[in-house]
Amino acid sequence: MSETVRLRDVVEADLEAFLEHEHDPEVARRSKFPPRERERFMRHWERQILDDPTVFVQAVMVGDELAGNVVAWWEHDRRFIGYVFGRAFWGRGIGTEALRLFLAAEKTRPLYADPFGGNTASVRLLERHGFRREGVVQHGDDEHIMLVLRDTP
């Protein structure tokens, strides 16, 4: 990959781009995550992500362009990871490099992810980084794959 991928802290100005990513119909289809209206989205990011010291979130930059974000959070006694990239950045190795950088900084293991089963690109991305399938979970009518990273690959 010839493009330089780096991570940086998220700033409030990034949220508009993240909102656009979430509202992309293809992102919503692949993630099976319904887009939130603007006010609810902003409130969630400001209060539950940026203001929570237990959440680790990074903006993904490709050169000077904001490509997306990667985030880790606690859900009960499990640490989860999730990410969203703008569609213009798909299929270019950016997610692979961003996840590699993020996993080097996020040291908690085990680390869980539960992408929609039909999102084979996301499942493959996580498996490429050492996540292993440990079952399925239902979110509404949709089956998601439970993936776990137990050790750093």
From TrEMBL:
Q: Which PROSITE patterns match?
A: GNAT
Name all N-acetyltransferase domain ranges.
5-152
InterPro entries for the chain: Acyl_CoA_acyltransferase, GNAT_dom
Q: Which GO terms describe its molecular function?
A: acyltransferase activity
Q: Has keyword DNA-binding?
A: no
Q: Which EC numbers does the record give?
A: 2.3.-.-
Alphabetically list the UniProt keywords.
Answer: Acyltransferase, Transferase
Q: Does the keyword Transferase apply?
A: yes
PANTHER family in the record:
ACETYLTRANSFERASE-RELATED, N-ACETYLTRANSFERASE DOMAIN-CONTAINING PROTEIN
Q: What is the protein name given in its UniProt record?
A: GNAT family N-acetyltransferase
Q: Which organism is it from?
A: Nonomuraea purpurea
